[in-house]
Please model this.
Amino acid sequence: MKIKPLLVLLAATMLSVSVQAEQDHQGHGHDSEASQEASGPHEVRGIFLGFDEGEGRVTMAHEAIPDVMMAMRMHLRLPEGQALPALEPGDKVAFRMFSRIEAGRVWYASDLELLPSQTELELPPQLREAVGY
Model:
């Protein structure tokens, strides 16, 4: 059995897959200069899902932010010194969302305000189901 031709073929295949994966990754904008810049603030509405005091972050399911990101569930930090208003999981809120470049991109939520419970949010069905909305 000839092992050398098999090793050459295996190495060529791995290199091809690696190059394709890098091209696919760049196509999502993760390595572009724009992705390394801070973003926002964006006016956003969503559902408050909880607060992790130890991490200083809230969990939100938010509507899409046009040209920035689709609707999703996210952990967002609170800016230093900003207290969390009295919110209960399931409350609908309006807030400002922005990012900073620290050790990578970090997203923040600030100025959280309770919305009327009858407020209709534009969330995709899968997200609605995932968060029980």
